[in-house]
Design brief:
The protein is an alpha+beta fold. It is built from ten helices and 39 strands. Strand 6, helix 7 (about 185-195) and strand 7 (about 210) form a beta-alpha-beta unit. The longest helix has 19 residues, at about 130-150. About 50% of the residues are buried. Its EC number is 3.2.1.22.
Length: about 625
């Protein structure tokens, strides 16, 4: 657990001695040290591009005027540890060409130990095609020798990007190994990396960890809901927790996420097991992790862009049969009893994280309940839609004096048209309430929050509440006739790298940095440029009959891209392609979408990771 500057600063001038010392100060002042964060790690660009006459690495005198040892001493004075970076190649990954460790392993390792370094991240750039095991073994041996001469152990982080399946061999060399390419501050990137790391649970254990890369929490490319999912997933995967945001600028919400002691305890549990996937159908993930005290952490993770009911049971998570269980909500910090059901209606891109245990005191906790919401998440200005809220008692004890409410933004009309109260709900019973919801006539297109709340009491009189926040989109249907997708406003757009682009390929960084859409040598003026995994959703309001496009891997990616395209009308897949590569010409995709309220354009990575997966929806158009 610790900090690395790269995700927030890259190689910019703000990465310097003052920043590193400031982060160490914040670890102490903000309680992050007490929460378990130890390492303050320097990434690329800390050195000069050339070694000195003796072949030694030279710290950049502008960034680090007092040298690395002085910074290390300062970090150590705070009761913390310090890490550093280099590459298992001739140069590091930055284009400035900083010196790598290949051929200099003994000298560099000794230099790091002499400076007081506690952690080494060893990257994979400019490796000259030399076998990965050979390169990473050489630095392991050098670190071991340096430790023997200085008495300073150095954690060895193997950043090989998962290219040679390091989970199968790197445990002999280091303490953690990257299982994926680099993360970026986007939902698509985080999701893709989590999916690549989740199947590798069998290779993790105490002192040998799968590393799905550093945290992006707080960097601004995702919502707080998505960042909580990011932190929850990394924790249930027993992943290293390396903060990647500039804590000097972090919000209170970012500190609340990063400092959640109960979630951190799941990550740092001494049993050292990575969570395993119980189920994942339809983007509804259940992941369970055995903990040292015999309890189970259970993550209910919603990959989709709409609320989903996600459920398992205590026995399904690995616990023995019992009359009832304690259900601890690790984000709400509340205890409940459950008869065995472990479920929640999880908001779009959200995660509910529970700790479930066979607790003899279960009856002292109020019954767990699940709040659900069924009905349209899409409407139009001035339209009235019906929504049903459902409160279910999951507990072994009844929920009593139950009441529910539904609230929305100012100006929205919300009216209950069935009962909102119940005297008692026994185990498994439901209170279903129908509501009429009307958006104001002048409501602008966009996302609006609807909040479902419930109040109830346990048999002993303890008050309890439940709350679910959902999103409803006010949208405008496409005009009659044929409309290019790039001329319409989408409801949402998710992308693996960079933003979805209109009429250009995706450039992977800022908006507008792409190139002309080109597939198989043919250039297209209209369309969408995406990077897998990607999902672009349009509102069609039941008024469109067909969608069509020419699809393929953009020519700019050489021979590396592999993607597959899907068209979904509401919840039904209505068209798809095989996995396409750069060798394939543009493929015509035509889909019947009659009656659908929304259409999702999905691009997957072909099952082999997201490297170079630039997909083009060329000439994409709706007929309405």
């Amino acid at each position: 657990m610790g900090f690395n500057n790269w995700n927030s600063t890259h190689c910019r001038a703000e990465f310097n001695e003052a920043m590193v010392k400031g982060i160490a100060d914040i670890f102490v002042a903000k309680g992050l040290k007490d929460a378990g964060y130890q390492y303050v790690n320097l990434d690329d660009c800390w050195a000069l591009p050339q070694r000195d006459a003796d072949g030694k690495l030279v710290p950049d005198p502008v960034r680090f005027p007092n040298g690395i040892k002085a910074v290390a001493d300062y970090v150590h004075s705070k009761g913390l540890k310090i890490g550093i970076y280099t590459s298992a190649g001739t140069k590091t990954c930055n284009s400035a060409g900083f010196p790598g460790g290949l051929g200099h392993e003994k000298s560099d390792a000794q230099q790091f130990a002499d400076w007081g370094i506690d952690y080494l991240k060893y990257d994979n750039c400019n490796n000259q095609g030399i076998d990965a095991k050979q390169r990473y073994r050489a630095m392991r041996d050098a670190l071991k020798a340096a430790t023997e001469t200085t008495g300073r152990p150095i954690v060895y982080s193997i950043c090989e990007w998962g290219e040679n399946k390091p989970w199968e061999w790197a445990g002999e060399f280091g303490q953690l190994w990257r299982t994926t390419g680099d993360i970026s501050d986007s939902w698509g990137s985080m999701l893709s990396i989590a999916k690549q790391n989740l199947p590798l649970a069998q290779y993790a254990g105490p002192g040998r960890w799968n590393d799905p890369d550093m945290l992006e929490v707080g960097n601004g490319g995702m919502t707080d809901t998505e960042y909580r999912s990011h932190f929850s997933l990394w924790s249930i995967m027993a992943a290293p927790l390396l903060i990647g945001t500039d804590l000097r600028k972090a919000t209170d919400e970012t500190y609340e996420i990063l400092g959640n002691h109960e979630v951190i305890a799941v990550d740092q549990d001494p049993l050292g097991k990575q969570g395993t996937v119980v189920s994942s159908e339809g983007g509804r993930w259940v992941i369970a992790k055995e903990l040292a005290d015999g309890s189970r952490a259970v993550a209910l993770f919603n990959e989709t862009d709409r609320p989903q009911h996600i459920a398992t049971t205590a026995t399904g998570a690995g616990l023995p049969e019992a009359t009832a269980y304690r259900l601890r909500d690790l984000w709400a910090h509340k205890d409940y009893n459950t008869a065995g059901a472990v479920s929640a209606t999880v908001p779009a891109h959200g995660t509910v994280l529970y700790r479930v245990s066979a607790d003899a005191r279960w009856a002292s906790y109020p019954p767990a309940t699940e709040l659900g919401l069924d009905g349209t998440a899409l409407t139009e200005a001035g339209a009235t839609d019906q929504i049903e809220t459902i409160l279910t008692d999951l507990g072994r004890t009844p929920a009593q004096q139950v009441s529910v409410r539904l609230t929305g933004p100012e100006g929205w009309r919300i009216k209950a048209v069935s009962p909102t109260r119940a005297a008692s709900l026994p185990t498994g019973s439901k209170l279903a309430t129908r509501w009429q919801v009307t958006a104001p006539t002048g409501a602008a297109p966009g996302a609006y929050e609807l909040t479902v709340g419930a109040d109830y009491r346990s048999p002993g009189g303890t008050k309890a509440t439940a709350r679910l926040v959902s999103t409803v989109h006010v949208a405008v249907a496409p005009p009659s006739g044929r409309s290019y997708a790039s001329d319409l406003s989408w409801l949402s757009a998710l992308n693996g790298w960079g933003p979805v682009e209109k009429n250009t390929s995706v450039g992977e960084s800022e908006a507008g940095d792409g190139h002309p859409l080109t597939i198989g040598g043919t250039t297209y003026d209209k369309g969408l440029g995406v990077h897998a995994p990607s999902e672009v959703t349009y509102y069609t309001g039941g008024r469109c009959s067909r969608f069509g496009a020419q699809v393929g891997v953009d020519d700019e990616e050489g021979a590396d891209g592999t993607v597959a395209f899907e068209v979904w009308a509401d919840d039904t897949k209505v068209a798809s392609t095989k996995t396409l590569t750069n060798a394939d010409p543009a493929t015509a995709l035509d889909a019947a979408i009659g009656g659908a309220k929304s259409v999702r354009l999905v691009v997957t990575d072909g099952g082999d990771g997201i490297t170079s997966d630039h997909g083009d929806w060329a000439d994409a158009a709706f007929t309405c």
